[in-house]
Design brief:
alpha+beta; Pnp Oxidase, Chain A; nine-stranded antiparallel sheet; 5 helices; 9 strands; 38% strand
């Protein structure tokens, strides 16, 4: 069965949105640090194209540092309302500065300011300190655009494997695995 898993993912994503799934773009991002210790957290998918899955974050954060040390990562999506999930494994690369700048301009102003003041993953003495910095930056850029911090970057995960899972009863779920070889994908079924 010749199927494009990227096209299928986009269809499932749109169907999850139409079904009323809260935050259908929420994805668990798993990374591994230089010592081989895994970490997982949720981030937001900002686009899917043939080359891969796009997201943005602070490159100084734990996930950013992990990705500098080890480009292998995995994503997981779960859409309860449609009874589906998708898993993606691949290697992550930085997107270009121009792409990061373009996306930055689409973000709500409050999110821009928050990303500018947050030293993501660093320890914080008090929340009041963070809020004070936020308000100061808000005043500083009251009549001008908030510039993108150089450490706020875009990433793309180029998939090597994509698994689609569909809920089936009696817990005999349908699992389809697509594995990339060059520019081609092969498909196989997996036991539930």
């Amino acid at each position: 069965m010749a199927t494009d898993p990227i096209r299928r993912f986009k269809t499932w994503w749109r169907e999850a949105e139409s079904a009323g799934c809260p935050l259908p773009e929420a994805m668990a991002l798993a990374t591994v640090d230089a010592a081989g210790k895994p970490s997982v957290r949720f981030v937001l998918l900002k686009g899917v194209e043939k080359q891969g899955f796009h997201f943005y974050t602070n490159e100084r954060s734990r996930k950013g540092r992990d990705l500098q040390d080890n480009r292998a990562a995995a994503l997981a999506f779960y859409w309860h309302e449609t009874g589906r999930q998708a898993r993606v494994e691949g290697d992550v690369a930085l997107l270009g500065e121009n792409e990061a700048d373009r996306y930055w301009k689409t973000r709500p102003r409050g999110s821009q300011i928050a990303s500018s003041v947050s030293q993501q993953s660093a320890t914080l003495a008090t929340r009041a300190d963070l809020m004070r910095e936020y308000r100061a930056l808000e005043r500083r850029y009251v009549d001008e655009p908030v510039p993108r911090p150089m450490h706020w970057r875009g990433y793309v995960l180029a998939p090597r494997r994509i698994e689609f899972w569909t809920r089936k009863e009696p817990r005999l779920h349908l699992r389809e695995l697509f594995v990339r070889s060059g520019s081609n994908w092969s498909r196989q079924l997996l036991q539930p």
